[in-house]
Amino acid sequence: MKRISYGGASFLTPDDVADALLELVTVLGISHTNETLDLPAVGDDGDTLIVTMVVGPMSALMSVPEFSPWKGPDTTLVIAVLNARIHALTAPKSYPIEETIATTDVDWHDVDFTE
User: Fold this and answer.
1) Region 97-108: what's the mean pLDDT?
2) From the centroid of its chain, how far is CA 75?
3) Looking at residue 65, what is its pLDDT?
4) Which is the most buried residue in 26, 84, 103, 108, by most CB within 10 A?
5) Which residues contact 63 (CB under 8 A, 6 or more apart)?
6) Helices 76-90 & 15-31, crossing angle to 10 degrees?
7) CA-wise closest residue to 28 among 37, 40, 17
8) Dihedral, 79, 74, 37, 64 alpha carbons, nearest 10
9) What's the CA gap between 42 and 40, in Å, rounded?
């Protein structure tokens, strides 16, 4: 488990969620956007709770490993969502072929073939 500190508060979450969160915040700088996230966390009593947070390129997060006697929640879905966002922000952009071919604005009527 890792404790994420953010905005004067902190929460305990599984390692894979903490790592994906930090990676997402890092790549948000590419798009200069913010994201609202719902992340699983472990409360002081071991119960799973959802932490809602807004993160962006300027978010100052800190992740610290921490021992916890509690079993972490299932993170399969949230990791898939976070990884999909990371991939979407870092994948090369593709453009239709019409936008990649350089053309000129010359028409056949503009060309003098008599010279």
Assistant:
1) 58
2) 16
3) 97
4) 26
5) 2, 3, 4, 5, 18, 19, 21, 22
6) 20
7) 37
8) -80
9) 7
Its pTM surpasses 0.70: yes
Rounded Cα gap, residues 88 and 81, in angstroms: 11
Would you give the DSSP letter of residue 72?
P
Strands 9-13 and 62-65: unpaired
Q: Which residue has the tokens 């929460």?
A: 11
**From the CB of residue 73, how many other CB atoms can be counted at a distance below 10 Å?**
18
> What's the CA gap between 34 and 25, in Å, rounded?
9
Q: In DSSP terms, which residues pair with 11 in a beta bridge?
A: 4
Tokens of 88: 């979407």
User: Residue 51 to residues 20, 85, 112: CA-CA distances in angstroms?
Assistant: 15, 18, 70
